[in-house]
Amino acid sequence: MSDMKAIYLLVPLAPLAGAILAGLFGKQIGRAGAHVVTILGVAIAFVASLFIYQDVAAGNTFNGTVYTWMQAGGIDFEVGFLIDSLTVMMMLVVTFVSLMVHIYTIGYMSEDPGYQRFFSYISLFTFSMLMLVMSNNFLQLFFGWEAVGLVSYLLIGFWYKRPTAIFANLKAFLVNRVGDFGFILGIGLIAAYAGSLNYAEVFGKAGQLAGLGFPGTDWLLVTVICICLFIGAMGKSAQFPLHVWLPDSMEGPTPISALIHAATMVTAGIFMVARMSPLFELSDAALNFVLVIGAITALFMGFLGIIQNDIKRVVAYSTLSQLGYMTVALGASAYSVAVFHLMTHAFFKAL
Known about the structure:
Layout: H1 2-24, H2 26-57, E1 62-72, E2 75-83, H3 85-108, H4 115-134, H5 138-156, H6 163-194, H7 199-204, H8 206-210, H9 221-236, H10 245-248, H11 254-263, H12 268-275, H13 277-280, H14 284-306, H15 311-331, H16 335-350
Antiparallel strand pairs: 1-2
Transmembrane segments: 6-25, 32-53, 86-106, 118-135, 141-160, 181-199, 219-235, 256-274, 286-307, 328-348
Domain NADH-Ubiquinone oxidoreductase (complex I) chain 5 N-terminal: 69-119
Main location: membrane
């Protein structure tokens, strides 16, 4: 298994290495150097993901710690990977779409003075997203969650001389902060009541959590946890009423619209709910909440898309509507359907 662990590590670290080289040494390596190192990094990640996919298809899954950062109050803070069929599907989507976006960017940004910076950002984004989907614990999930938020802020405001871009990236950042506040409350409740941040341990204690009430109310604890987690997904996956940032975020360069708003970042919330399905299944109230929010989003964003004039905004509202469909599927406990639509949508919308 140790040889596979090296391949697992290669997947997020190759894009990170490309991002560091292009970002810190962009002037020395020049434009060609910047796109060569970043594309190479993402291509290595994609090929490694294919290997891992074949390994998982043969029935090998992995759930283990790679690095323990610290232990405090009986809770381990660690970097670990959980490799199963859901993870490899996301890894293939993220690395492949990112690779295509990197290649497309060579032509699209050829005249832009911020060429190396742009390549550094999109590689860093790929690293963040891979850390998010490969994590086996809530700490690393939250790290990836915040990192994609930060990099999307940098990318949406990439042309920082345009006032519209500055407003758009600030709006995206602030709306995501609202969602992330709910997300971290949910993680905090899990840490407090389950006494662990590891997915497997938390899901193992799900039966005990299901019997607890939330102190001071007649709600179930698991309902409160799931709704808090889903508020995080509402920010990231742009569900009503936290959807307002996504149409404005089209201010960034077009490759970003493909990467963030089609394939990878906006599906983080959908992925997270699918990953947390053992908890969501314990609470009908939380699933109903997910279903209603998704239905509102799917319907009204479709209406709003019809009346837009700007083609990039039409695409943004189309994405919102599709994300609403995925959320409805999650609320109806049809996780495989949601993830299937996530994959198909990633490819056709990026295209």
